[in-house]
Design goal:
globular; alpha/beta; 3 domains; two-stranded parallel ribbon; Rossmann fold; 11 helices
Length: 237
């Protein structure tokens, strides 16, 4: 999974799509060996005229000029780049600045990793935004074993196992982080397959069922192929 995404990230910004807790914030840190600057609507959107645009410009310019390699992750992209039919001039201006820097990074050969995340695909009808991203539906790259191993590596937890127990395949990265930390603190040694298997996993997967229901209610937001793949993937978790 990560080798494929790293290859994509050298070509264009990545737009990560999927439900809460499945790794949209985890992946940017795994993709880059550098510190990640996170942009959120709370940090960017300001009630003062021109302030939001200035913040976006400053962040991207700092990334470009920094002697230290930095990456950018844009959380909940749709809360920053709102739909094109908005009546507010500030939103039009923010989109313009945002698109300018996305294109600049692409033209300069993607000097750093840029990722963004949202729950669904058609977060905006602004094709000028969408066509600058490579779409990465999380369910296309759902590999439970790699998720466990990459999570362990990121948090410097030693795991000596080439497989994971069945119950672990139903966990989100958010849950995996919590459990691995608990086990690591308890065992104080490299975790084995037996250690993972003995942990009492609650195989309740309401999160997946809820996302399937959400997908069905919002299927108009997805191209047909993406919708079908998403429902098939999360229905079997």
């Amino acid at each position: 999974m990560l080798s494929i995404l790293k290859k994509y990230a050298r070509a264009a910004p990545l737009l990560l799509i999927g439900p809460a807790g499945v790794g949209k914030s985890f992946l940017p840190r795994a993709l880059s060996n550098s510190p990640v600057v996170v942009l959120t609507s709370a940090a960017v959107r300001s009630p003062y005229h021109g302030e939001s645009e200035r913040i976006i410009r400053d962040v991207f310019e700092i990334i470009l000029s920094s002697d230290v390699q930095l990456s950018i992750h844009i959380d909940e992209l749709s809360s920053i780049v709102v739909p094109r039919d908005t009546q507010y001039s500030v939103d039009v201006s923010i989109r313009g600045v945002f698109n300018y820097y996305l294109q600049r990074f692409i033209d300069e050969g993607m000097p750093t990793v840029i990722t963004a995340a949202d729950n669904y695909y058609m977060l905006t009808d602004d094709e000028a935004v969408l066509h600058r991203f490579i779409l990465v539906p999380i369910w296309y790259y759902w590999d439970p074993v790699e998720i466990v191993m990459q999570t362990a590596a990121m948090y410097k937890i030693c795991v000596e196992a080439s497989e994971v127990p069945e119950g672990w395949r139903k966990l989100r990265p958010r849950d995996i982080v919590k459990i691995l930390r608990e086990l690591w603190a308890e065992k104080g040694k490299c975790l084995t397959y037996d250690d993972l298997e003995q942990y009492p996993i609650n195989t309740e997967t309401r999160w997946a069922a809820e996302y399937v229901e959400w997908l069905k209610e919002h299927r108009h937001l997805f191209p047909p192929a993406l919708y079908s793949r998403a429902v098939a993937t999360f229905s079997h978790i």
